[in-house]
Structures are given as C-alpha cells and as structure tokens.
Amino acid sequence: MPANPLPLTAPGAEDFRAWHRVQSAALAHDLPGEPVPAQDAVQARLTTPAPGSRLVLWLVRGSGSDPVATAALRLFSHPDRSEHAEVEMTVHPAHRRMGAGSRLLSTVTEAARAAGCRSMTTEVAAGTSGERFLVNRSFTPVVRLTWLRLALDEVPEPIRKLPDVPHAGYRLTAWDGAVPDALAAGYARARQATAGGPAGAARSGDAAWDETRLRERARVVERRGERLLTVAAVCEADGAVAGFTELVLPAGLPGRARQHDTAVLPEHRGNGLGLWLKAAMLRRVGADHPRITEIETGTADDNRHMLAVNTALGFRPRRRTVTFRLDLHRR
After folding, report:
1. Residue 329 lies in a domain
2. Which residue ranges does the record assign to the N-acetyltransferase domain (predicted)?
3. Are 201 and 306 in the same domain?
C-alpha cells in the first residue's frame, strides 16, 4: 500500500533518482521507442520552473520505499493566470489500478483549490489508461495535439535545396538565447499579438508578453542547460517583427531538438512567411548543430495551416496527446 502523498519540500538526490525511475518506466511503457531524458535534465526542469510560476512536487513511495508515483503542480503568480494550474502526474506501470493515482490526484486537486485555482489542466498520451483515468474523474478534453518528428536526413530534397529566397518587404534575422535589445520591443509585441493560438483553449488567461518576460524565459532555458534558438521575419517598411519560430536544444536528449512556437502576425499572413521561417531554422540547425539528428514538434489538430507547413517540411506523425481540464469550482 503506497504511503500518503506528501509534498517534497526539500528534495534530495535520492528523491530525484526515484522520480526519474518512475518517469522512465512510464515512458517506456506508454511510449515505447521514445528517448528517456537524463536524470540531470529532469532534475533541472523540476528545480527551475518557468518565469512567473512555482512547482509543488509529490513523490509517493510504496511500503518497501519503492517509488510509486510523482506529481508536479504548477502554480502561477501573474494575476491573469493565478486561477489556473497545470499538473503532470505519473504512476509507475507496476503500481497502476491500485489506488495510488486516485489518492494522488485528490491531494493535488485540493492543493490547487487551496491556492485559489478555479481550473487545472494536464496532458496525457492519447489512447492510454491515463486518458480513461481522467475521463472517469470529470476532466474534459480541450486540446488534441499531434506530435510530429522530422529526421534531418529525411528532409525532402526540395526543402533541403530551398535557397533563402528573398520575400519582398521582409528580411530574416536570428539569435541564440535572449532577444537582442534592438528587437526586444518588437518581438514582445509579436509574441503578445499571437498569444493564445489554437492551444489557447487549454488556458484560462495568459501572462502578457513583455521584454522582461522574454529575458526571464531565456535565462530559465539557459539555467536548465538548454539552448534557445530563434529566427524572425522583420518587416522592412516599419521594422516590426512579422513572424518568428523558436527551437530548443534540450539537455539530456542527445540528438533531438524541440520545436516551440511558430507564428505569423495576422496582417502578414498569406506571404509564405511560416514556411520561410521554419526552412531557415532547419538550415541553421543543420549548419551550426550537426549533432542534432531529429526535431520534434506538437501541433494542435485544429491548426491545419501549421500541420500543412510541417508536412511540407517532412515532419511525420509519431504520437498524439490530449490536454484535459478540470473545473475546480466548489459545488
């Protein structure tokens, strides 16, 4: 019988080793073939939360001290998001259907309510026991994502040879890490103008993008041992950032990069900027980071345009996930 879930107030090395054991076993069971992040990378993510948020951690052990389940509850400090929480909960495959998940979810839910949250979201692999677990506990699906993978040695020949053809009225620029001062204000406006997107339904508000938040985010990525790469399209007429694409080189996953946001401002759409930006990023990764062999990205199923762009670049579907939301209103 698992022990009662207790928050990890001062986790030590053994706690992180146990956490990694649960995560690795669950990943191998639920998504066979997916690479397992290194323990150091998992620890860095848990101890370095995203800007404007903090993590509350639980590690559940069995009667023999074997790790049984983990949960990370993300609470937000910004007023626009303070009533929303996100949770990542994992039960070791050998301990499922024994009550550990239900008890842990009850504990996490009460903690979110006590923090003043009115909703909570979580993401699970589609078609797994986790999806059924949530449906049976009043969670509602809000976003379905298709995760795609691009093997860089399988990039279609037309894309591989795609020259950096000028787009009339625009120029490309790129940076590593924090946005340069000269572009910071324009990039913050572009991030804010495209915030929400198809995945916005999973959120109850979002903190405003400004220069401070951009730089804080870049510092968090760096502290985790990762690298943030950005390519942006700048409008020649007024110097505004018209679109951008971001990619992270994660720690603990040799050979794989993770595509983050790609967006084009509404007034600049229809000019082929999305494909131009992502093709430029592929060239940059190939030239500057030869150890990267594949890129993974997640795209909302209702974002047909970006799915089409990714398909044209050679991305192929690998797995699907569902984001669920729970209403925490007291009845």
Report:
1. no
2. 14-190, 188-331
3. yes
Burial of 237 (0-12, 13-18, 19+ CB in 10 A): exposed
Look at the chain and count its residues.
331
Cα 300 from chain centroid (whole Å): 12
Classified as helix, coil or strand, 165 is coil
CATH number assigned to the domain comprising residue 113: 3.40.630.30
Tokens 């026991």, located at residue: 129
pLDDT at 252 (0 to 100):
79
Closest CA relative to residue 68, chosen from 97, 44, 32, 92? 92
Is 148:299 a contact under the CB 8 Å cutoff? yes
The pLDDT of residue 200 is: 41
Give the integer Cα–Cα distance in Å for 80 and 213. Answer: 14
Q: CA nearest 72: which of 137, 5, 147?
A: 5
Residues 6+ apart with CB under 8 A from 272: 167
Number of domains in the chain: 2
**Alpha-carbon gap, residue 106 to 88, rounded angstroms:** 14
**How many Å apart are CA 229 and CA 285, to the nearest integer?**
9
- In the chain, count H helices and then E strands: 9, 11
Domain-embedded: residue 156: yes
- Which of the 8 DSSP states describes residue 268? G
Residues 82 and 220 in one domain: no
Average pLDDT over residues 3-10: 81
Whether the pTM exceeds 0.85: the reply is yes
3-state secondary structure of 257: strand
Question: Does residue 55 carry a pLDDT above 50?
Answer: yes
Residue 174, phi then psi, degrees to nearest 5: -145, 155
Looking at the structure, tell me whether residues 169 and 258 fall in a common domain: yes
Q: What is the pLDDT of residue 6?
A: 79
Domain assignment of residue 143, yes or no? no
Distance CA 18, CA 325 (A): 28
Q: For residue 142, which phi and psi values (nearest 5 degrees)?
A: -125, -30
